[in-house]
Amino acid sequence: MNSIKCSECHLVNWSTSSECRRCGALIGDNHAARSRYSIDKEVHVEPLFSTGIKLLTAMLAVTTVIFLAQQAFQPLSPEMAKEIAVWLALPALGLYVLAHIWLIIRIFEQSLGWGVASFFIPLAMLFAVARFWHKTKRSFVGQCICMLTFFVGLAIGL
Q: Which one is predicted more confidently, 41 or 110?
């Protein structure tokens, strides 16, 4: 009789077997027929705008509206504008630091080498984000929104 090797555990089975004796995987004609007609597993894609990103975007929108109102109408005194700038920019800076830590953790989850490189080589983090975009996109977008909020907040006080 002929034999056939299991594609999963590589055990040699009889060619008439439909399942592997060791791991139970389908082998032979049954495996080919099943893989040809099988439906792919559903791929879970995380949305870009999670609740956290939506909140950060709302914070950026509020900061931008205050900035535009200050530039157009000058409703705030210079001292009050500086105080509001501090109250908007400092939380944004704190959230930026948290988003940065979150991004580094996500990179380390994907690859130890890319994680270490992200610490020591400035552009390595950008390459790691591009390489592992499916896992790092929300933390990177959150980081960018926080930085924009920080700069817009600072611009209110100028």
A: 110
